[in-house]
Amino acid sequence: MNIDWSKLTFHYTETDYIVRAACKNGVWERPYATRDKMIPIHAAATGLHYGQECFEGLKAFRGVDGKVRIFRMKENAKRMYHSAEGLLMTPVPVELFCEAILLALEKNIDFLPPYGTGATLYFRPLLVATTPDISVGPGKDCEFVVVPTPIGPYFPNGFKGMPAIVNRTIDRAAPQGTGCWKVGGNYAASFRASEAAHAMGYECMFTDAKTHKYIDECTASNFIAIKQRSDLTFEYLTPRSTAILPSITNDSLMTLAREMGMKVTRRHIRVEELADIQEAAACGTACVISPLTKVVDPDKNITYSFGDKPGPVLTKLYHALQDIQYGRTEDKHGWCLVVE
Ligand code: PLP
Ligand code: COI
User: Fold this and answer.
1) What does pTM read for this prediction?
2) Average pLDDT score, the chain
3) Between vectors from CA 333 to CA 254 and to CA 266, what angle results, nearest 5°?
């Protein structure tokens, strides 16, 4: 193995095997590992033409004790089930999803980065409709693939902080659309806004597509904020929106925040409320927590600053979550499946 683990970024590095399983006429075949990374797909497949496709993302960590931990795999399986239902695809049974991830791990165990490198083994499960049909409607046959890859930090700055810019001009997902599912079309729809923000040196802060008053998501991640209350306790705030992905990282952080005595509130958050917030971040499997140094609102000509360094509350939450993922502390909630 000739990988410099500490130099990995969030890009694809080929491993030995992918795992595949096909569903034909509503019946799932058993998952199998293959060295061939190409999946043959009919040129008329509904997944290619009409975007009938969804995916997931989860990580395995090499712990401080040398054991392997997969974080909240069943939650990803359940979310993919919902995404598939949303697109009228045949969902991958939760057990099959988990079996495929475990097989992908076993067959690519040499690609699991060592403890202390900051890198992890990321699994990218993909479900794509393969039915050849050009009539506009859902196809029932599909292919499930798990693509593993060792990865480093999602954002080049890692936990150090990044600036974001409010976007009101290009919508990512409609309030009653597909934003709550992890479907490829949402990401394709977000590229123009993200690239425009990048060109100006920022990450993109998406606002709700109906009013553009409220914060939806930050990059391809959930948004979280820490607010100090008048009694000097902290509140963990995160948007309530039908157009955002229910993040498993955010859910975990909410639990940890409650355990730390914080009030946790999920509600509409107006962009102007950033003025009363002390710490803000993007959160997700890929970036864990990525603090925001500032948020620029170009339409109102206002900059909300959160300091160049991650704040104390987000730092505490970040370490609490990573300590569980790397086995440095007790996993009270049973979030990790210990494999080895
Ligand atoms: N929002 C979007 C659009 C995402 O793609 C992701 C990543 O999966 C998240 C939020 C964070 O979700 P999770 O914490 O489950 O990875
Ligand atoms: C995440 O896992 O946090 C993401 O943002 C998903 C993205 C890489 C598609």
Assistant:
1) 0.97
2) 97
3) 15
